Amino acid sequence: MNISEKKLIIAIDGHSSCGKSTVAKDLAKKINYIYIDSGAMYRVITLFAMRNNLVKNEKVDENKLSHLIDQVSISFKYNDRKQGHETYLNNALVEDEIRSLEVSDNVSLIAKIRFVREKMVAFQRELSKDGGVIMDGRDIGTVVFPDADLKIFMTADVEVRAIRRYKELKDKGDTVSLEEIRENVKKRDYIDENRDESPLRKAEDAIVLNNSKLSKEEQLDWIIAKMNEVVK
Question: Which CATH superfamily is domain 9-220 in?
């Protein structure tokens, strides 16, 4: 590893359940960068909307949400025992709740709302103003940081992503079937790619990383090599 002291902004976009957050977190820890989980932010808004009965029959009461969204405070705190950052909604820990299948089923509905995205993008840019940041999501390289120093578009086969997500939820004790997860992955892909507001797409200058057959270590080595190319 031979990375310059220059503090880069690294944008990692890609499909759901392809391991963006895991790789971004591991990379941030390895090179001492700040990790910002943009997906967690949208999950927090989704959880807030669900708690306030604003999501019904795959529709969001956008009018009510627009009046309530300023009540949402999102923060990340480092857990020494777990050696990772956890997500808080109005100072209450919600890390496990926002990773549930129910939230996953609704997060794409929330993420496509313009005023939600505008609020989250402003927050993300403020957190990243000093550089040395790794952020993952759906529109980081295309909307949030169009001038990012390094843009990566991650993907993996649908079946690979479904199995990874299934194992993750099963380890947490959730009783969901692989078929449910597979359909959720396909559904989120469709919504993310076809929404009107900031659809998921690869930035023209992004480098594709298909990690269907790569280990975490191989992915980290690949990204670090690309970082070294950028700072030469």
Answer: P-loop containing nucleotide triphosphate hydrolases (3.40.50.300)
